Amino acid sequence: MKDCIIKWMVIGIGILSIIFIICMDFHAIGKSPNIILKGETLISLCPNETYQEQGYQALDFNQQDITKQVKIKKYHDKWIYRVQNKKGNQATAIRKFVREDTDAPIITLEGNAEETIYIDTLYIEPGYHALDHCDVDLTSEVKQTGEVNTSVVGIYPIQYQVTDHAGNQTEAIRTVTVIPKPEITDKTIYLTFDDGPSYTITPGILQILKEENIQATFFVINHSDDLNYLIKQAYEDGHTIGIHSYSHNYRYIYTSEDNFYNDLLQMSNKIENITGQKTKIIRFPGGSSNTVSTFNPGIMTRLTSFVHEKGYFYFDWNISSGDAGEVKSAEEVYQNVVQNLGNHANLVLMHDFENNYYTLNALRRIIAYGKANGYTFLKLTEGSPTMHHKIYN
Ligand SMILES: [Zn+2]
User: Fold this and answer.
1) Residue 54 pLDDT exceeds 90
2) What is this structure's pTM?
3) Exposure check for the chain: N or C terminus, fewer CB within 10 A?
């Protein structure tokens, strides 16, 4: 009987212990911590992208913050967040990643998608960029096909292809059109008259220019004030008055920069007094290529940059009429000019010094030839082609 009682007591204690343990466990479940993930729990990522944590928080059953106790196990397709409180109760949260790259790269063409170039000119690839959502810069992986034959008129497509590491492909096309060279339309003639004005020649030249309704340029020097009216008339007729020289004395002006500049300013002032206008357009006596100044080595090299620094524009020429001594007839002046005209800017050197009848008598024919052959006559301005010569001194 006593044995039996002891036996039942042991069984009873065992059952009570089991009930107690079970109750303890239920009690513990109610005391678990909790992990809250910020942001989405299902994230779309690029294949090799590292997930940038958006945040999380762990609170114990009593709302105590135990975020610092969270441990994260990082896998390629998920992160597992775990936390355990002091009582040994755990909580778990999972963030899953869907890894894929479905976006094709984007090719951006520098320059125009439709380029047009003239035949026999150089074609330079303007360049491109390829960017991908997942691979970032794919520029170096772009394959370019197609070539431009710049010596044959035609339309040439250039293809640009790139594939990202997920196999998404993109193509861009540039069309290069090679066109024939344009008709050169800037056939211009700048007539320039040096060393005037003169009683015998300048009035006739002004008369012809007026009748032909064209404008020219006069690089004047100092003569008698009785001739000032011709400078004034030329200016009022709309021609350009440029500074040639006050003295036109090579020995004097090319001896020093000071001499040159004094001489230039004297002529500049004279012109301004007559016309009321300052001019910055000049021509060196003998041209910038002259060798008459070699008694002063390097003077032309120095003067050409000097006048530039002072804000002057000096003009040489690419056609010489030869009327300063070489020619023996108006016909020669005419031939020297028209034979050398080209489909570009033509800067013609002539003179209106006293008794230069060859030029006066050739002028109307030169103008007629120019007009008949599609040339436009213009006066020099600060923006006109300067036709600078090679400098020999
Ligand atoms: Zn001269």
Assistant:
1) yes
2) 0.56
3) N
